[in-house]
Amino acid sequence: MISKINLGNFFEDFKIGQKIIHPLPRTISDGDVSLYIAFTGSRFALHSSDVVAHQMGYEKRPIDDILMFHLTFGKSVQDISLNAIANLGYAEISFPNPVYVGDTVSMISEVIGLKENSNGKSGVVYVHSIGVNQNNQEVLNFKRWVMVHKKDLLILSGINEVPTFQNSTVIEENINIPTIKSVDTNLSGGKYFFEDYVKGERLNHPEGITIDNSDHTLATKLYQNNAKVHFNDHMMKATPMKERLIYGGIIISMARTLSFNGLANAQWVYAINSGSHCNPTYAGDTIYAYSEVLETINHKREDIGLLRLRTIALKNQTADEVENCKGEDGKYLPNVVLDLDYTVVVPKKITTSCN
Amino acid sequence: MISKINLGNFFEDFKIGQKIIHPLPRTISDGDVSLYIAFTGSRFALHSSDVVAHQMGYEKRPIDDILMFHLTFGKSVQDISLNAIANLGYAEISFPNPVYVGDTVSMISEVIGLKENSNGKSGVVYVHSIGVNQNNQEVLNFKRWVMVHKKDLLILSGINEVPTFQNSTVIEENINIPTIKSVDTNLSGGKYFFEDYVKGERLNHPEGITIDNSDHTLATKLYQNNAKVHFNDHMMKATPMKERLIYGGIIISMARTLSFNGLANAQWVYAINSGSHCNPTYAGDTIYAYSEVLETINHKREDIGLLRLRTIALKNQTADEVENCKGEDGKYLPNVVLDLDYTVVVPKKITTSCN
Amino acid sequence: MISKINLGNFFEDFKIGQKIIHPLPRTISDGDVSLYIAFTGSRFALHSSDVVAHQMGYEKRPIDDILMFHLTFGKSVQDISLNAIANLGYAEISFPNPVYVGDTVSMISEVIGLKENSNGKSGVVYVHSIGVNQNNQEVLNFKRWVMVHKKDLLILSGINEVPTFQNSTVIEENINIPTIKSVDTNLSGGKYFFEDYVKGERLNHPEGITIDNSDHTLATKLYQNNAKVHFNDHMMKATPMKERLIYGGIIISMARTLSFNGLANAQWVYAINSGSHCNPTYAGDTIYAYSEVLETINHKREDIGLLRLRTIALKNQTADEVENCKGEDGKYLPNVVLDLDYTVVVPKKITTSCN
């Protein structure tokens, strides 16, 4: 009898052009939203207040982009990265449409690249994943690549088809955000607008948040991300890590949350251009972050502009203590845990008539 | 003045035929559902996706049977088992009707048996409990027996009225599940149907989940189960256990969650025939599980069949490592923490027209 | 360039009469309610059951007063107490109108007193804070005072304007609670009514609840209370405390939850007259509580009366073990962590026609 146990896909199971429908569409609820605030302490007003959402032209508060990413991304772990050795990178992540409580998200991936490693033991799988809501509207679009174990070490395929990625997610002519008529800074908690930020500016976010085992495992289970390294302490004790590894997405959430202090009006993540989990994090680590403004991007819309940011997350070290996230050898310092290049939307001053 | 403090019932407080209305009806919300996913990582599609629920003939996703059990069962702890020495057993648990977000569940119990222990210090109380929703429809029905302290050790009653239990919950002619017109295996995450399972088959579920103090106490508090052993570390430090004991229901939830890998289309728990918490679990334990198909049960309905399963939960040992859950002496091995005999509903292949 | 980082207000930043609109209005959801039950294990029926809420004249279950307090109060931390050395006291807290799921709460504070400390390093700021819902109805009203750092130690203002507080919150002629037609004690879990309580009576609540790091930080993050001492273990390790301090509001919630056993029908907190966090609590502490009836207060309404209570919360010591919360020197004993003087509403017996 064929085993009914799903052990995930290995390198040989993937073919260029293959489409994988990820099971387990997820209906997003108020419970998910509250838990996300509990996990992160996030204070972006658009996502925690219907009153603010109304002022910004929404019927009700949309789901935080990063929460939506986790809930949608989680679906793909079983098929793509259950046997991953490493999540190597992300590119061209975009959030084309808002998602609301009650929406159901699901995802489909296409294999766009395969590269066998020269050691014959593993290979890199490149996928293009598209998340949709229940009306088949695109809500998430991204590419990622993971190093995956091979089943059979002896059979060499020699495959080496590596796709190219754009340096940053394309910014569309139409940005699916309502026209911002006013931003009440007394409600949003932020006094600064698009015009206030300059290229090269650095923001040292002062807060730090410690992560414990219960809260990071609760979050990753909520996202139905079933990568074993995050949950199974018994298994991890037998590895060099000795303990459960924190899901990298949690660090992205923490970095975004910490960036509130300095970027309170940057309520939308428009895109993630690239991201790297530079070092692992474990329970007990305290996460800090700083952000650099890489670029200020004007858009044809008069009410908003975009900032391309680089947010660096640190463990157990404050932003004030770190001048450069890389050492003289060009390698990330050991306390650097995330290097995130992303683009946010910030309202322009002209719109703030009410304050 | 009479003390207003409720110290729970002792053996002498129970009478055969006595009916106990358990206070604190509970309205089930989206928050409870999200928290259950966060506690367990459960991935059964019917309970996490409205889209899947619609396809299966439901208006919206019903509450996971085991979550409903905890929320309803929790009500009875104050009256039945606050002074319990041990939860001895369960029998004939059934889930006659689905429960949805917004429903309010409550429970009533009847004392159906009493047996004083020969040591005069305690006795066994047998109750039949019925949970209903706000429209008085039965949503849970079960029998359980607990060993309870006596108040007065000197007064011997000699009572010995032990009810008999059926070996398994009766399977009704009418099963309150919509006619399954199609199961999209791309959504449910499972390729196997009723006809694929054979008696005697064993499924070694590969995942393991570690439980920490915060998450098991959050869950048990959510269920408003106020048995002190689960929450009060100060009290437990003075006992031979030295620490908080994890509520046995949490192990049932974990075993069910782990069984997803191999039983993804077994979306309904029809009944729990019997259950035994073989050994205690504590924070830091990692739970694994394997399942044996005890029986494949045909039903007059053409769209579904039932599987009688035995799921064994283990602590800190993988399913592959355990051939038999009992030693040569017939006793459970020390790492076996749950022996659950239950019946699930699985769609038949004939219904899967769409895939 | 002016720093965009908000480091909170210092003593010199406050002026008598200054009004501060606290940003981040919060829409309260079912997720918040479930999380509150998970954090506390609270069993007050009015807040967990729509059926009970209907019986008591509500359309649906109102939000627990203490949860609402945390969600509203959390808004003011950024502006008032981010640089607090100590939260010195509360007075005249009232809950004028019920709050429901879907409501959005926000808060405004007025500075009503300022007193520079003689050491020149800090001062006490007194504020009067008013929380409203989305219809601008008052839902919370209180005064508090905090000791705050000065920015400039050399410039002495000599300001010394200290407001006076009433010994207890005024009890209004109109209490915004529906006329209680019946209390079904089988549902509420409590047999005792207003007439059953007498001045001087003491209730030793028997349960104890242990708090862990994940659950107290999840709660405080849910409340969007960003006081660093609660989240940042890395920072706290460098202080004499050596670890994260539990937010005092969590102890208020625990004390209230524990008081259920003895005060199950006291479903409404009408007011908090004063409160003192006598000693700090840390992860691993087990909270116990006892309550004293300070006063039984008749009201013109025939269906309800009020009890003025003093609930003392203890850490790692049962209520039975503590006769007096203060030593012979008049100081709080080291295990006393909360001294709360508050007023609850309890239905009168006359209304319990149905049971």
Secondary structure elements and pairings:
Three copies of one chain form a homotrimer.
Chain A: E1 19-27, H1 30-40, H2 45-48, H3 50-55, H4 65-81, E2 84-94, E3 104-116, E4 122-132, E5 138-149, E6 160-161, H5 185-188, E7 202-210, H6 213-222, H7 233-236, H8 248-258, H9 260-263, E8 268-276, E9 286-297, E10 304-315, E11 336-347
Antiparallel strand pairs in A: 1-3, 2-5, 2-8, 3-4, 3-6, 4-5, 7-9, 8-11, 9-10, 10-11
Helix pairs in contact in A: 1-6
Task: Sum up the structure in keywords.
homotrimer; 355 residues; alpha+beta; eleven-stranded antiparallel sheet; 11 strands; globular
Characterise the protein shown here.
- The structure is a homotrimer of 355-residue chains.
- The first copy, chain A, has 355 residues and is an alpha+beta fold.
- Chain A has 9 helices and 11 strands.
- Chain A has helices at residues 30-40, 45-48, 50-55, 65-81, 185-188, 213-222, 233-236, 248-258, 260-263, and strands at 19-27, 84-94, 104-116, 122-132, 138-149, 160-161, 202-210, 268-276, 286-297, 304-315, 336-347.
- In chain A, strands 1, 2, 3, 4, 5, 6, 7, 8, 9, 10 and 11 form an 11-stranded antiparallel beta sheet that branches.
- In chain A, a hairpin with a 6-residue loop joins strand 9 (286-297) and strand 10 (304-315).
- The longest helix of chain A has 17 residues, at 65-81.
- Chain A starts with 18 loop residues before the first strand and ends in an 8-residue tail after the last strand.
- The model of chain A has no long low-confidence stretch (mean pLDDT 95).
- The interface between A and B is large, with 41 and 52 residues.
